[in-house]
Amino acid sequence: MIDFKIVGDWSDERFDVIYNEQCAGYQNFIIQDDGQIHLADLIIYETVRPVHRSWLQKIVNPFYKPPVPTPLRQNGIGQALLSRLIRLAKENKARTICGSITEDDEKRSPLLVRWYQKNGFIIGPPIETHLVPGKHSILLNL
């Protein structure tokens, strides 16, 4: 598990994940007047490069090796983002959270459908009226 923080506000319709003073991912959502929250993006980057000054380190120490990038996935970041969105949606009396899973999403994260199901979402056929019609629709009744 890595130590990260989530910044952003419900009214911003965006949360950012900060790790090692860098953006490690983000979540965008749209609050609609009818009480529906549209989950637009939930992105966790593969890695972040450690902040370092390799050119300076090489001058001081010719044997210096730059730090290895830190893998970010499978560290609870996505779960923390989704849990925060669900909690704030309930606090703000939203009725549902919906979105789409695209083919690209599934290629990047083959277990994504199962992950949303585990978090209480209903997986359905694509809905053409969604902002980005995908391979699957997702819906969570709050």
Automatic annotation (TrEMBL):
Gene3D superfamilies documented for this protein: 3.40.630.30
Xref: SUPFAM superfamilies: Acyl-CoA N-acyltransferases (Nat)
Alphabetized InterPro entries for the sequence: Acyl_CoA_acyltransferase
Protein known as: N-acetyltransferase domain-containing protein
Organism (species): Coraliomargarita algicola
